[in-house]
Design goal:
heterodimer, A: 238 residues, alpha/beta, B: 403 residues, six-stranded mixed beta barrel, four-stranded antiparallel β-sheet, 13 strands, binds adenosine-5'-triphosphate, binds magnesium ion
Chain lengths: 238, 403
C-alpha cells in the first residue's frame, strides 16, 4: 500500500540544510495499523506529510498503491489526497467558519459528489463518531475530543483506504484520547490502513506494528547500536 | 458550486461583508447615474448645428451705431473679402448656431392669435443658406430680388420681403402632417410665407430639446450698425490664413475698425460647450476614482482574507482541493458579494435618478444602464479578486500540518 525506499527529504534554508529524512525505508501493507514513534524532531511529521502527498521529497522512491508519486502533477496529487487518503491532525484543523456538517462535507464537495449522497455519507460518518446530533454546531462550541471526532468523521466520510494521523491524541486528555483510539481501532477492524504518529507508548503498544524513527531514519530497536549501548550500560550496572 | 457554505461563512463575517457590499452598491448607484449624465452631456455636445462647421469662420467688429453709408460700406467690405484667395463665401449675418448672440421672435399662425404658437430664432443675412451650407430639403432658396436691407424695413411691415425659409423642426411643430410650403406664419404683425425648408439650423442659444431647432431665415441684409458680424467660408485647411487676411482686408477698408471676435466655427462650438465638457470630465473622474477605490477595497479585503484563512486553505488543499478550486472559492465569494451589492445598487441608482428627475428635470435612467452597470462591477470585482485568489491558490497543502 505504502512503500518508501531510500527516501530523502532536505529542507534548505539560506544558512543550513536539514536532512529531515535520509535513506528512509518503510513498507506498510494493506490493512495494517502502524504506529510511528520517535523523539521530537526525528522526522515523523515529515514522513507523514510526504506519505500524504502534502509535500514532495528530494530523493528516493515512494510508491503509493503501486504508483510512483513523484511523477504526478499537482492536480493528480490533489485527487489522490481526496479519494485515497484521510487526514487526522493533532490540531484538529476544522474550518472554524463552517458547522460540523459543512466541515465533514468539504472533501466530498471536492470529489464532485451529488448533494443527496453527500448528505447520506456525512450523516453516516457523524453517526460513526457519535456526533450526529451536533451537525449544526460550530467547532468552537465543541470539546477537543468532539472536535477530533468530527475531524475523524471528515476523514472517514470519503471512505479512504489510508488514514494518516499525526499525534491525533496529542491535544486531548487521557479519557478523550482513549475514546479516539478506540474509534481508530474500530475503523482499522473494518479494513482501513492506518499510520499513526504518537508520543504515547501505551497507544503505540495497541498498534499491530511499531516503527521507530531516529534522525530521519527508520531503526530496528533490536539492532540499533544506540539502543544496545544503553542496555549494555544497564547490564554492567547490575 | 459551494454557494451555501460560502454564504454561511460570510454570515459569520457580517461587518466586513456588509462594508464591501455597501461599497459596491454605492459605486454601482453613483456610476450608473454618472455614466448616464455623461451620456446626456455628450449627446448635448454632439448636437448638430446644421451648418458646414469645418469651413466657417466669424469676425465680429465692435458695433458702431448708425452710419449714413452703412449699406455701401457693407457691400464694399464683402466685395473685398470675396477677393481673398480661398474664400468660397462671405456675408454679414446677425448670428450663428451656438454663437450665443441670438435674435428671437414669437410666431403665430394668425395675427389675432392670443398666445404665440412658439418662439423661434431668426437668421438674417445675404445668401445664408448657401454660405452656411444648409441642407434645403423642400421648396427653394431666396431670389436676389427678394433681399432687402434690414434697417430699410424696420418699423414698416409693408416693406418686409414677406417670404422666409424655416427649419423642418419648426415646420413640423406648426404644421404637423401638412406641407408647410406656401403656408403663412406671423411675426407680430408681419406675415411671412414659407418658401423653403432646411433640414437643420440650430439656435445660437439652447433652450430645451424640442425648441432648439426652431429657426427662420429671412432675406434681409444686415450691417455693422445692426450688430452683425462677418461670416466667411473656405476649405478647412485655408481657414487660419483666410482669417488673418480677412482681418487685414477689413482694416484696410477702415483702419479704425476694432474686432471683438476672430474665430473658426470649431472655436465657437468648443467655447459654447466648454462647461459641458468640463462637467463630463469631472463626472468621469469621479467615476474612475470610485471604481478604483472599490477595486482597491476588494483587493485589500481579499488579501486580508487570504492571510486570515491561510491555514484553512492548506487544510482544504490537504483534503483534496485543487489550486483551481481555491481560486474559484474566492471568485465565487466575490461574485456573491458583488451580486448582493449590485442588487442594492440598482435600487439606489433608481432612487438617485428619481431625485435628479425631480430637482434637475433629468430624464428617467434608461433600463440598459442597470445591466451595463452590473456587468461592469462584476468584471471589476472578478479582476480585483484575481490577485488575492491566485495568492491563496499558492498556499501549499503542507500548511495543514505545519501551520
Ligand atoms: N519547513 C522546514 N524547514 C526547515 N526545516 C524543517 C522544516 N520542517 C521540518 N524541519 C526540520 O525537519 C526535522 C524533522 O521535523 P519533523 O517535524 O518531521 O519532526 P517530528 O518528528 O514530527 O517532531 P515532533 O515530534 O516534535 O513533532 C526537524 O529538525 C525540523 O526542524
Ligand atoms: Mg511532528
Amino acid at each position: 500500500m505504502l512503500k518508501m525506499s531510500h527516501l530523502a527529504k532536505v529542507y534548505r534554508t539560506e544558512v543550513v540544510e536539514t536532512y529531515a529524512l535520509r535513506d528512509f525505508n518503510i513498507n506498510v501493507k494493506e490493512g495494517e495499523f502502524v504506529a510511528v514513534t520517535g523523539p521530537s524532531g526525528s522526522g515523523k511529521t515529515t514522513f507523514l506529510t510526504i506519505a500524504g502527498l502534502l509535500e514532495t521529497f528530494t530523493g528516493g522512491e515512494y510508491h503509493l498503491d503501486g504508483v510512483e508519486v513523484s511523477k504526478l502533477d499537482d492536480n493528480a496529487r490533489s485527487r489522490i489526497r481526496n479519494e485515497k487518503i484521510g487526514f487526522i491532525f493533532q490540531a484538529f484543523n476544522l474550518i472554524p467558519d463552517l458547522n460540523v456538517f459543512d466541515n465533514v462535507e468539504v472533501p466530498l464537495r471536492y470529489r464532485g459528489m451529488k448533494a443527496a449522497e453527500r448528505k447520506q455519507r456525512i450523516m453516516d460518518a457523524l453517526e460513526r463518531v457519535g456526533l450526529a446530533s451536533r451537525a449544526k454546531h460550530y467547532p468552537a462550541e465543541l470539546s477537543g475530543g468532539q472536535q477530533q471526532r468530527v475531524a475523524i468523521a471528515r476523514a472517514l466520510a470519503g471512505s479512504p483506504r489510508l488514514l494518516l494521523a499525526d499525534e491525533p491524541t496529542g491535544n486531548l486528555d487521557t479519557q478523550m484520547a482513549r475514546g479516539v483510539m478506540e474509534l481508530l481501532e474500530e475503523i482499522h477492524r473494518e479494513g482501513a490502513t492506518i499510520v499513526m504518529v504518537t508520543h504515547d507508548p501505551e497507544l503505540a503498544a495497541r498498534a499491530q506494528r511499531n516503527v521507530h524513527v531516529i534522525d530521519g531514519q527508520v531503526v530496528d530497536l533490536a539492532e540499533d547500536p544506540r539502543f544496545h549501548a544503553a542496555s549494555h550500560l544497564a547490564d554492567t550496572a547490575s | 458550486m459551494e454557494i451555501r457554505p460560502i454564504l454561511s461563512t460570510l454570515r459569520r463575517h457580517k461587518v466586513t461583508a456588509t462594508l464591501v457590499i455597501l461599497e459596491i452598491a454605492l459605486t454601482c448607484a453613483i456610476v450608473c447615474n454618472a455614466i448616464f449624465l455623461i451620456g446626456q452631456r455628450l449627446d448635448h455636445i454632439d448636437l448638430p448645428s446644421g451648418v458646414a462647421e469645418s469651413e466657417l469662420m466669424q469676425i465680429i467688429p465692435v458695433g458702431i451705431g448708425k452710419q449714413a453709408d452703412s449699406h455701401a460700406r457693407a457691400t464694399a467690405d464683402l466685395a473685398a473679402l470675396r477677393q481673398i484667395p480661398g474664400v468660397t463665401g462671405a456675408t454679414m449675418a446677425n448670428q450663428l448656431p451656438f454663437g450665443n448672440q441670438s435674435w428671437n421672435s414669437s410666431i403665430r399662425l394668425s395675427p389675432d392669435q392670443k398666445l404665440p404658437s412658439l418662439n423661434s430664432t431668426i437668421y438674417y443675412g445675404q445668401d445664408v443658406v448657401r454660405i452656411y451650407g444648409l441642407d434645403l430639403i423642400a421648396g427653394r432658396n431666396f431670389q436676389d430680388d427678394e433681399y432687402k436691407w434690414w434697417d430699410d424695413t424696420a418699423g414698416d411691415d409693408s416693406l418686409s420681403p414677406h417670404v422666409g425659409i424655416v427649419t423642418q423642426a419648426l415646420a413640423r411643430k406648426l404644421f404637423p402632417n401638412e406641407n408647410p410650403l406656401g403656408k403663412t406664419i406671423w411675426q407680430g404683425t408681419n406675415n411671412i410665407q414659407i418658401i423653403g425648408v432646411v433640414r437643420t439650423l440650430t439656435r445660437p442659444n439652447l433652450r430645451d430639446v424640442e425648441s432648439n431647432g426652431y429657426s427662420i431665415i429671412m432675406p434681409l441684409r444686415v450691417t455693422m450698425g445692426n450688430f452683425a458680424g462677418f461670416v466667411l467660408r473656405s476649405r478647412p485647411q485655408d481657414r487660419a490664413r483666410v482669417l488673418d487676411e480677412a482681418v487685414a482686408t477689413l482694416r484696410k477698408q477702415d483702419p479704425r475698425r476694432v474686432f471683438t471676435e476672430k474665430r473658426t466655427y470649431d472655436e465657437i462650438r468648443k467655447k459654447f460647450f466648454a462647461g459641458d465638457r468640463s462637467m463630463t470630465v469631472l463626472l468621469a473622474t469621479v467615476c474612475a476614482a470610485l471604481l478604483i477605490v472599490t477595486a482597491l477595497g476588494i483587493v485589500g479585503l481579499g488579501s486580508f482574507w487570504v492571510a486570515q484563512r491561510r491555514r484553512q486553505i492548506g487544510v482544504r488543499r490537504a483534503l483534496g482541493a485543487r489550486r483551481i478550486d481555491i481560486v474559484r472559492y474566492f471568485q465565487t465569494e466575490n461574485f456573491l458579494l458583488a451580486t448582493i451589492g449590485i442588487a442594492l445598487g440598482m435600487v439606489l441608482a433608481y432612487g438617485i435618478n428619481l431625485l435628479l428627475m425631480v430637482h434637475y428635470e433629468l430624464p428617467r435612467l434608461p433600463f440598459i444602464y442597470l445591466p451595463a452597470g452590473a456587468a461592469l462591477l462584476w468584471l471589476l470585482g472578478q479582476a480585483a479578486v484575481l490577485g488575492p485568489a491566485l495568492r491563496a491558490a499558492s498556499v501549499p497543502p503542507v500548511v495543514a500540518t505545519r501551520g
